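Worked problem 6 (solution included).
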Amino acid sequence: MSASRSGAAQPRAGVLGLGNMGLGIATTLAAAGWYVQGHDPDPRARAAARDHGVPVGEVAGPAGEVFVLSLPSAAVVREVTPQLLKDGRARVVIDTTTSDPRTSADMARLCARAGAHFVDAPVSGGRTGAWSGRLTAFVGGDPAAVEAAAPVLDAFTASWSHLGPAGSGNVVKLLNNLLCAANMVAVAEAVDVLAAYGLDIRQSLAALNTGSGRSAVSEGVFAGSILKGETRGGFAVGLMTRDVELGVATARERGAAPAVMTAVAGAWRQALDRLGPSADCNVAPSVFTTATDCLDPENLTSQAQRKEDDR
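Solution. The predicted structure is:
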């Protein structure tokens, strides 16, 4: 039941950052009965928000005492959060940015001194999850902060887990992205070997996906998209490379020397150098092959077309 129908005061939230994820979160909150006001310095993002019925305002004064951040980097989180505390309006700050644990711990202390709550709640599920309310959030913060943030998290996610103090959600999210990135490299290399032996890569990968080596990447990303010639997964190579390198740096901060993670970071840096930051991650596997060009986007598209013509 919406807030207006129940007679209760309509909850209010500001969403800062109106890209694919932030605008999706904003529209999901609005559909759940929240009055949402957004902010983004990019006029194109503001126009898109208005097109979707989300009013926009200044960063210093979006609606409500609850603020959801969906920002480009930890550095921007550090810049924006103090602005939300200046006039005392921020009661709860929920940061969905893929950030680092040190930034979140620092912002949580800053908010606590101002009498506000801060939780890091980076999300998984991509654009589709943001626009459908099916995101998963990895949450870090003290219990009181998480309790204050819970109604908002419930409204724009399908599930969320409180994992520990501020910064804990960042650690888990970075590891999630590292595992995804590692799987992308490993499956691409496996498909390359299949092609080098002259095997039908779609049939052979389908067989592999009945075994213990299968993964969400091998089943969903490769079999479900890439091998069908679909080169738009919705996540950029520049962002994946950033997340992988940040994950490795986070691991090293606590004394880990992750050999596989470091190799994965090198592979994605190579993809970034060759393809550029705006290239889609579904194109990156073409850089990870060494024996064949089986994952070249043009080859995949022509193979998919031949499969379709043979039907």
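Discussion: Residues 17 and 70 are 5 Å apart (CA to CA).
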